[in-house]
Give the backbone structure.
Amino acid sequence: MDYPLRSTPRPFSLLLYPTMIYLNLFITFFKIGLFTFGGGYAMISLIQTEIVVNKQWIDAATFTDIVAISQMTPGPIGINSATYVGYTVTGNVWGSALATFAVCLPSFIIILLIALLYKQFKQNRWFNAALKGIKPVVVGLIASAAILLVTPDNFVDWKSWALFGGAFVATWWGKKSPITIIIVAGLLGLLLY
Amino acid sequence: MNIYLQLFSSFAKIGAFTIGGGYAMIPLIQREVVERKKWLDKEEFLDVLAISQSAPGILIINISIFIGEKMRGVKGSIVSALGSALPSFIMILVIAYFFENYKDNEIVARIFQGIRPAVVALIAVPLITLSKSANLNIYTSFIPIITVLLIVLLGISPIWIILSGALLGLFHFYFTRR
């Protein structure tokens, strides 16, 4: 498969050298693992800005499909998207394995360090202060993820907006599970399009 | 049963049976690790949970690394993390293989045309609960707004914004601590 390049060529970009795709994949998912605070949805926005907007390895519609598949299958969304993106970018299992390993590696380093310094860490006021500053940023990150996914591919007509509204209401007021929402939306898609 | 095998199978079970990830997993982990295996008591589990939530990365991976480390050091942590990641890894790999070949199929395309806007709604809904738990006030509610503008309009990487948020938190603490 060929490797999509950014619209403006950068001669020193690792992407110009196909063998370097693995290194690039590793660095990207390592960064995602290192900077995800605040759970799966915050990770969605990081993965999206790095992989869809920055590297352009996959388009927004494909990314939305990955999120849908992740919501319907067991396991954390971080692992699911690393595995999926690793596969689509390299076309083989090793890309998947590498991306998944890379997204978990920061956790290893940090959790093992914390386990060593357990007592000091538990009541570290400086660390908690930094986390307090990150919390409102995470709200913005998730909002951006939602906004950036409102693309012409994802929202083709008014029916898309009706589906969006219906899913929003059913999740927020109806307290329906993501799986139910996705299955019903899929069936409606089959009927409407 | 060998303790490594136990760690692996316990976390593989959790990884294989919790759909959606994240917070849905916590009660399952607690039942398995605290009540069934008795590896930790409830208090220790809450500590592990608190630290795993504040550390960066994937929650279940953090928890399994932490518990694995408590049980059998670094080796234990590798086995546990592998256990929790492997079921979804295999499943997604199989799905990716088929989906890449079938996504241009007309029926699949129609189904996903309906699913995509719903997914955007699924991401937007947690914003409401999250902004409540972040205790936003007149001053701090500017932070998410600026974040959105920087990311959506200027294409700035979230990494820089997260680092700035952390710095802001530290400054605020430094100047208001006494």
Summary: The first helix of chain B runs from residue 3 to 17. Chain B touches chain A through 98 residues (CB under 8 Å). Chain B is about 80% helix and 0% strand.
